[in-house]
Amino acid sequence: MYDVIVVGARCAGSPVAMLLARHGYRVLVVDRSSFPSDTVSTHYIHQAGLLRLQEWGLLDEIIAAKTPALRKMNYSYRGIELNGFADPVDGIDAVYCPRRTVLDEILVNASRRAGAEVIEGFTVSDLVFTDGRVTGIRGREGDGPEREFRATVVIGADGFHSTVAKKVGAELYNVRPAAGFIYYSYYSGLDWGLHHKTGFNEKWFGTWPTNDGVSMLAVICTKRQLKEFRQDVEAGFQGVFDDVSPEMGAQLREQGRREEAFKPMRYPDNYYRRAYGPGWALVGDAGYHKDPYTGWGITDAFTHGELLAERVHQGLAGERPMEEALAEYNKLRDEESAGVYDFTTTLGELTELPPFFEATMSAMSATQEWTNKMLGLIGGVVPDYEVYAPDALERLYDDAGVPEEKRIYDPAG
C-alpha cells in the first residue's frame, strides 16, 4: 500500500513524486516510457521554472549537462521588438532549454534519490475504485502480467491524453480552440541564440540553443495552412523563416544543417480539466493545456506540481481534509494560470493584437527598462500589476512618450 501513486514520470509527475518522497511518504511512480527518452516539447524553461529547479537542488545538474545559458531574448510580434532580458531574480540571470532526454532523466533520478519507487515501461490500463473513490491502478510492465497497486491518492501526470483523466471522467472547462500546429527539428551551423518572432502572415518561428551543440528551430502556422505545409514540410519550414525574417531565412538555407527528422505536433484545444476528486488529482497537461506559443508547459508543470505536492502533504499529514486541500489546489492553479492562459491564447492566434496589447507592447519596446520588465512578466518573475496596474500603465506611457489620445488602459477597450 502506497501513500501516493503518480502516473507519468516526466516534468509534472517526477517533481510531485520527489517532493512527497522528501516528506517521507511511500510513493510509486509509473511511466510507459523508459528513461532517458524523448518527447515532443518546447524545451523552454522560464525563470519561474528555473527558480523551482534551483530550490529543489537540480539546476546545477541542468547546467552540468552543458545546457547553454541564454541571456538575451529577441522577441518580435508583427513588427514590435522586445530585445533584452529580465532582471536577475535570486541569481537566475539566464534561461535554459534542455533536451527532454536530459531534463526528464534528471527529474526521474531525483525522485528515485528522494525515495520514490519508479517502474519504467509500465502502461496503466485502468484505475481501481472502492465505493466511488480511486484507490489504485492496474496495468502491465512491458508484456508482463497485469499488476495492481493501491494508494491513498492517485495523481495523473500523464499528459493531455491522460488515462487517469479519462477513467475518472474529469470534465473540461474554459476550452478555447487551438489556433495552429508546430514543426521543429535540431540544426547545426547556426549561432542565432534565442529568437521568438511572429510575422504578418500568421506565421511564427523560434530558435534556441540546446544540448549537444545544436539549436532547436520551430515554426508555428495557423491550422488552415496545415494541408499545404504537409505537402512539402522542408519547403514549408524554410518558407516560414523566409517570410518572417528574410535575412535569417537566407542564413538557414546557406549555413543550417538539419540533424534530425522533423517532429510535428498538431496540438489539442486549450483547456482546463477539473483537477481533483475522491482519491485522485491531475497535474501538468493532464489537467491544464495551452498553446505552446509561449513555452509555458514545463514551467507550469513545475509550479503546479509543487502546489499539488504541498496540498497532498497537508491531506496525508492530517492537517486538513484531503478533498479540501485538493480543491484549494484546483482553485489556486486556475487563478495563478489565468493571466498566462489569456496572454497565450490571444497571441497564439498569430493575428493582429487587440488594441490594449498593441498599445502597451509598443510602449514597452520604446525603453530598455520596460522591455526587460515585460520579458520578466513573460518569464514569470515580474507580477502583472507591475506592468498593468493603472499607475504602472501611466508611468509606461509617460516613459515612452505616448500621446494621451493613444493611451489605452482597459484590456477590453
Task: Explain the overall architecture.
Keywords: Oxidoreductase. By secondary structure, the protein is of the alpha+beta class. It has three domains: 2-43 and 99-174 and 269-343, FAD/NAD(P)-binding domain (3-Layer(bba) Sandwich), CATH 3.50.50; 180-265, D-Amino Acid Oxidase, Chain A, domain 2 (2-Layer Sandwich), CATH 3.30.9.100; 355-406, no CATH class. Helix content is 38%, strand content 25%. The protein has helices at residues 13-22, 47-56, 59-64, 100-114, 163-168, 226-231, 233-244, 246-255, 297-316, 322-347, 355-364, 368-378, 385-388, 390-400; strands spanning 2-7, 27-31, 73-77, 80-84, 117-120, 122-130, 133-141, 147-156, 172-176, 180-188, 194-198, 203-209, 215-222, 257-258, 263-265, 270-273, 276-277, 280-282, 288-289. The strands form three sheets. Strands 1, 2, 5, 6, 7, 8, 17 and 18 form an eight-stranded mixed β-sheet that branches. Strands 3, 4, 10, 11, 12, 13, 14 and 15 form an eight-stranded mixed β-sheet that branches. A hairpin with a 5-residue loop joins β7 and β8. α1 runs parallel beside α4 (100-114) and α7 crosses α8 (246-255). The longest helix is centred in the C-terminal third of the chain and has 26 residues, at 322-347. The chain is globular, with a radius of gyration of 22 Å.
